[in-house]
């Protein structure tokens, strides 16, 4: 996860991370029997009644909570015990994100060949040991080294989890599952500062590290109870040349698939904007609003509130849209690629509106509305982007595609963190917010123009199959 500021973002190893713990890829269902009534799609309530998903979700929820306890303990340790500064906190963030960006794509290639259950269990147990090592650190470089190792291990966990959920959860539960995992992350993010603050004050940072280590062990135990019937892959020689070919094959699939290429780039742009805003929000609140830490915490928390609200509305809205049959209407294939791409475009536009509100006004209510709007908009990019990538990816490429997704977002986050200070000095904080709003509006408009008239390959194939079944019946 990205550790800095109010826009803490999930990355690999904790859903997708935590990007990615939130990465969910579901199995393709069998074709319905002609004449049978369609089964109702999963809702956010009924998906938790589905035991395999509930097991994964509970393991993830506990682990995310432990991660946030450790995160705040690390920040407290650097700030109050080691007397560090903002640059050192940012250094820890970059130390975590960079391995995800560089190791992630290669890790996905290996995960596509390995036993994913063993990968996840070993990843969790290894990370538990690494978290315990934080108890003994004496300076920031040691923390950076441990976080880099945590990130490297998480680079394997993320795609392995994607394969697992794709195998275990029915396709019609995908949207509800993504919404539930996204909400879990931000609900924990809203609640954990209070728990972490109380624990650090009462028993110190080390206790939080022990709790996080336990959360990884708990996650490993829960995963060990799962049966993951993954289809056998054709045996191939695992040479450097063959693995390189697998890597290139996965990336070719992404960037020759119009819909996936679009949502991947859209997600990267959204993460770049949020990451560049993260170090600046506290300065904006201090200098432009004349407020203090309490208002900073309140305005920051509105991001999570907006994302949870957006996820709820999105899940119900798209399920109603799919039930209406409009989303699968073959006659619509000539006019738009997918309702999910339209939702992502709308999310980018609304994210720009939130940035404009933040830059255009200098009062607390509008700042809170702006961060709520930005969180709300991110849910309209995050959930459909993941859902679409999961539905369109062939099972044999899940690890490679999900890890490339995570890597692209990690690069965007690092770039946003590194450039935020420079851009703020060159433009000013409020003009930077307004410039970001304009860029997002242009990207949304350009995306609409590029995607208009395109048909998603997987959707087109499903439409052809449905037409054949209709003719056959």
Question: What does the secondary structure layout of this molecule look like, with pairings?
Answer:
Elements: E1 14-15, E2 19-20, E3 21-22, H1 44-47, H2 51-81, H3 86-111, H4 116-133, H5 140-168, H6 174-203, H7 205-224, H8 240-255, H9 258-277, H10 281-287, H11 293-323, H12 339-360, H13 364-392, H14 398-427, H15 429-451, H16 457-472
Offer a few descriptive terms.
Growth Hormone, Chain: A, mainly alpha, 473 residues, disordered C terminus, globular, 74% helix
3D structure, described in words:
The chain is mainly α and 473 residues long. The chain has one domain (14-28, 41-229, 240-467): Growth Hormone, Chain: A (Up-down Bundle). The protein is 74% helix and 1% strand. It is globular and about 60 Å long.
Q: Helical segment tally?
A: 16
Radius of gyration: 22 Å
How many domains is the backbone divided into? 1
Distance between the termini: 50 Å
The residue-averaged pLDDT reads 77
Q: Using the coordinates shown, work out and report the CATH topology.
A: Growth Hormone, Chain: A
The strand count comes to 3
How does the overall form come out from the CA principal axes?
Answer: globular
Order of helices and strands: EEEHHHHHHHHHHHHHHHH
* CATH level-1 class: Mainly Alpha
Low-confidence stretches: 1-37, 325-337, 458-473
The CATH architecture term is Up-down Bundle
Largest sheet: none
The CATH homologous superfamily corresponds to MFS general substrate transporter like domains
Strand content: under 5%
